[in-house]
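Example 3.2
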Amino acid sequence: AAAAAAPAATVAPASEASLAPPALPRALPPHPGVVASVMNLATVHLEQGQWERARSGYEQALQMQEVLHQGQPHVDTAGCHCNLGLVYDELGQPAAALEHFER
């Protein structure tokens, strides 16, 4: 006799919080490639209108860039601030957006 087929597994949609990038270890200095990857992923979220995920990614990238560039002005840090300004504008937080645009 043939065995009955198992029912297809269903996958519950992941919540926005569960899809956030994992926290990076603080003990290791950031690598430029990792920072670029986090920025790229945040940009995908930005383009998809996933504002909170984009904000989280850009904030994480900004923290890494500030360590990487030792708090000195850098084009990558400026780009991150600009993107955060766009995200905060979309989130309806114009004061936060302006703060990032001015940096």
